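Schema walkthrough. Field components (list of strings):
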Amino acid sequence: MLKHFLTLEWKSFFRSASFKANLAIKIFMVFGALYFMAVFLGLGIGAFYIIKKQGWGDPLLIVNQFMIYYLVGDLYIRYMLQKMPITNIKPLLYLPMSKSKVVGYSLGKTVVSFFNWSHAFFFVPFSIVLLKEGYDPMGVIGWHLGIMALFFCNNFINVLVNNKDNVFYALLGLFSVLGICQYYELFNITHYTSPFFETLYALPWMAFLTWGLLMAIITWAFAYFKKHMYLDAGLAGKKSTAKTEDYAWLNRFGNLGTFLKNDIKLIRRNKRSRTSVIMSFFFIFYGLFFFTGAVEVYDGPVWKIFAGIFISGGFLFSFGQFVPSWDSSYYPLMMSQNIRYREYLSSKWYLITIATIFSTILASFYIYFGWDAYLAVLVGAIYNIGVNSYLVLWGGAYIKTPIDLTSNKKAFGDKQAFNTKTLMLTLPKLILPLGVYALGHYLISPTTGYIFVGMAGVIGFAFKNKVFSMIEGIYKKEKYKTLAAYKQKA
Amino acid sequence: MITVQNLTKKYGGSMVLNIENLEIPKGQSFGLVGNNGAGKTTFFSLMLDLIQPSTGHIMNNGVQVDTSEAWKPFTSAFIDETFLIGYLTPEEYFYFIGELRGQNKADVDKLLEGFEDFFHGEILGQKKYLRDLSKGNQKKVGIVASFIGNPEVIILDEPFANLDPTTQIRLKAIIRSLSAGKEVTVLVSSHDLMHVTEVCERIVVLNKGEQVKDIQTSAETLKELEVFFGG
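Field assembly_structure (string):
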């Protein structure tokens, strides 16, 4: 039986559409993975000595103190990214095998997930360093095993709370508040949680307790899924009550309004697009890395423009980049309807522009870091509207990845979205404005640098009609290829 | 209304569609039958410029489909679920199509009134998104949406599949009444020989991409088709 499951798994992995990405991307991904492994390993080995050198106290105590945030962060990442095991078991339901086996297999599959073993890259070297530094071997082993069980608990908790958005966001909100409280020394939750992790070291047998907890959660998850393994229960997709909405105030924009209405509904009613918009909100805070001087590498004056582009352009990058893939599931309809590409593209452009302006207004708190900082955001926004908005729409013509609106999978970057053409288009999006600024900054004065970037945006804006005609032509040329690509489900 | 000349579609080395000459006059109800892989959907996709012909072209009311887009205002279609927008409610979808085809809400509502029977109380005001409707109900929405905006050419791919018997009968009546006025050209494909013979004045049989039969429907047509496919 297990043999069957394993061959199924093997085939589903090697025959998946995304696996057939080209060689360059595969190499790129392997290097990416190696890089992250190296970083984690380095952190695992180095954390001990760094903490020691900085004089923050006993490294194990420090790690224990932040462990609660690590665990919650892990749960958060899992919730957003980890694929649920139940998606592929529908075809197995009616086959002659017991339900327990199917459930056992699906849950077992999650155990070998990357989200579990990636932590080993930190904890194994860290524990080895602890042993080497003369910590009590029994204690270290108990601590290590205990923490390991907790991460596996996370794995199964994630499986259980999957799709319970309100529970999840409440939890996330709670811990964000706790984090802020700790930062401002109002209330420190780690006072209450770290003793627990410390006991794992002091009393190694406590590890049995966490393993017991893990067993309990596994049993619970197992029973839960077995009980709910019906098409109309656990396997049913979530259905939401629909409300017909009008947005009549958009009617004054004519055909453009028709599309805008649709785009707003698209964003509001689909998980994937909602996630993108939420992500773009977080982009606004990206500038904090630059303007607070938290990251030394970013201290050069040119980086301010980089930050400015990202702060105002979150929506542009996270949503705009995937036009027209958002409409992939009904692209044949769009192509056979009475639609002009110009209007279709304009509506997306307006959406991007409105979002950019909105982000810029929200980002006005950067004035706190000086007018200079906000000026960078402003010219970044002008550049985004005048130049980058075209570039993302243009690049979109070449990204032929169908988007499954109802799933969050791949929301954080898609292998197929990387191709040489879109990569080439990233250069003018990010590097060009830096160059333009540097030109003004170093040749004349910082203010001139800002003026240059702003001018580039204004010039781009002036050529809107011309650029749109060009983009329209590309979309038309790519139409058949795009239709064919969207037909293949990812 | 529709003229097809030397139309071929090749994928790799294999020919999936090869129609030398086909004329469909205005107001005709035209049926397309054939086994799987006969090229029915390929033909309809070519008519909607969703794929490019390898050779030849289709003229729709004097407009060459693969070079001009002027056929769009008077042509509508429902091919499959890729013609539906899953995150809209049926009402919103109808209004959306209506707006694209220059019909205001009142126009659309008026048209929908005529289909109350057809919807059988399962479509309008259900508080459901299209993606959550059953396959059959999705199909009803797609078919009715293709009637919005007084199109002159309506293309329906397998409209009877997935529908319940009552709805099939109602749909047949609707298609007959559409073509009765001799204003609307209806193109229908089907696997069900009985349905096509009942609603279509003319039936063309495709086999492996080639047009093998062109029949003006009569009392003997069903028999003739059954002999053809049975043999």
